[in-house]
Amino acid sequence: MKKIFNSIILYAGLFIAFILVLSCLQLYENANRLFGSKSGDSNYWLTFSKKLTPDNIGRRELLGFNDNDITKLKTWPEVKNVYPFSANEFKASANGGDFIPFYTDLYFEGVDISGIDVPLTEKEFQVKGNEIPIIISREYLNLYNYGFALNQGLPQISEDFAKKIEVNINITVNKENKTYVGKMVGLSDRIHSVLIPKKFLDSLNLATKPNLAGQPKIYNRVLVQVKDSGDEGLIAKMKDNGYESNQESLRSAKIKSKLFLVLQAIAILGVFIFALCLYIIVSFIKIQFLEKQEEVSIKNSLGYSPKKMVNDISRRFSIHLTIVLVLSLLLIAGGQYFAAKSSISNDLLSPYINPYLWILVIIIPILVYFFVKELIYHWLIRSWKI
C-alpha cells in the first residue's frame, strides 16, 4: 500500500511539472499572438516627439527632429524604419456645406505610404484634380460620433458612410485661397492625425515658403517601426534623448514583458519539480534493487544480465511517463480550445495547441529512458561490483 501511495505522489508530481512547463510554452505562444511576437519579424509602431522643456518651447529647431536625429535613430538596433511626418506650413480649414453645418481649422500631416496602416498604394493615395484623399485617426471619428455629434444634435456617421461624404477643404497659399474636395479613404489605428498625400503637402509647403528649399528640414515628430516597444534598451535611449511616445503602447509592451517574465519563472519551477521527480525516481529504483539485492545477485549468478534488469525497469517507467505526458497535453489542449473560443481571444488564438508540443511525448520519455538506465546501471555495477 505504501508503494502504491508513493507511486501516486510521484506521478502526480510529474503531472504537475508537465502541466507547468507545457502550459507555459503554450501561453508564451498565445501571448505572442495577442501582443505580437518578439522577434526580428515583429513590428511595433511608436510616434516619437521631443519632450517639452523651458529651453525648447517655441524653438522649432530644438523641438523638432532634424536629419541628424533621423540618421541617429536609424542606427539604433531596436529600430527597423523611421518615417518623418511633414506638417502643413499653410493655413487650412474645412466645412461640411449644407449636409453637415460645421467649420474647423485643420492641421494636416503627411508620411510615407509605407508607414500608414491603411491598405492603399501610392497611386491610390494621391490628389486627383481638386479631390484630396484624406486618412484620419479612427479615434477622431469616435470623438465626433460619441462626443461632438451627440452634444450638438448632429447625425452620427459610420465608417462606410464617412467614405461617401465630401467636405470642402479651403487652403490659403501666398494669400490665394484654393478650394478642394476632401474625401476620406480610410481610418488609421496607428496614427492619430489627419493625413493627406505627402508629396502634395510638401509641394504646398514649398509654394507657401520657398525659402524652406534651402534650409535643413525639421520634422515635428516621426513614426518609428521597432522590433519590440517594450525593449528596455529602447526605452532607456528614448529617455536619454528626451523622446516621448504613446504611453499606452509602452505600457502594453511592459505588460507583455512582465507576463513573459512570470511565464519563465513558472516554467523554471516546473523544470525544478521535474528534476526533483527524476531524482526521486532514481532513488526509488535504487531502493527496489536494495530490497531485492539477494534476488538480483541470484539472477546475476544465473547469467541474467544486470543491464537487462535495468532496461526493463527504465522501459516500464518511460511508458508511465508517456501516459502522464499525454494526459497533461490533453488537459492543456482542452484549455486551449476553450480559451480560443472565448471572447478574450478576439479570434487571435488557435483552438489547437502547438503541434511541436506533441513531439515531446516521444522525445522526453526516450531521453529519460536513457538517462535513468545509464545512471542506475553504473550505480549497480559500481556499488555491487557485479
Name the descriptors:
11 helices, single chain, 2 domains, alpha+beta, elongated, 386 residues, 12 strands, four-stranded antiparallel β-sheet, six-stranded mixed β-sheet
Strand line-up across the major sheet: 5-4-8-9-7-10
Helical content class: 40-55%
How far apart, in Å, are the first and last alpha carbons? Answer: 32 Å
Tally the structural domains.
Answer: 2
DSSP, total strands: 12
Can you give the mean pLDDT?
80
Main sheet: strands, sense, barrel: 6 strands, mixed
SSE pattern, N- to C-terminal: HEHHEEEEEEHHEEEHEHEHHHH
Detail the poorly predicted runs: none
Oligomer: single chain
**How many helices does DSSP assign?**
11
Strand content: 15-25%
Choose one word for the global shape.
Answer: elongated
Structural class: alpha+beta
CA radius of gyration is 33 Å
Model description:
With 386 residues, the protein is an alpha+beta fold. It has two domains: 2-38 and 252-384, no CATH class; 86-212, no CATH class. It is built from eleven helices and twelve strands. The protein has helices spanning 2-35, 60-63, 67-75, 138-152, 159-162, 198-208, 232-241, 247-291, 293-301, 306-341, 356-384; strands at residues 44-50, 79-84, 86-87, 91-96, 100-106, 109-110, 131-137, 166-173, 176-188, 194-195, 222-226, 243-244. The protein has a six-stranded mixed β-sheet with strand order 5-4-8-9-7-10. Strand 4 (91-96) and strand 5 (100-106) form a beta hairpin. Helix 1 packs across helix 10, helix 8 runs parallel beside helix 11 and helix 10 (306-341) packs antiparallel against helix 11 (356-384). The longest helix is centred in the last third of the chain and has 45 residues, at 247-291. The two termini are 32 Å apart. Keywords: Cell membrane, Membrane, Transmembrane, Transmembrane helix. Its main location: membrane. It is a multi-pass membrane protein.
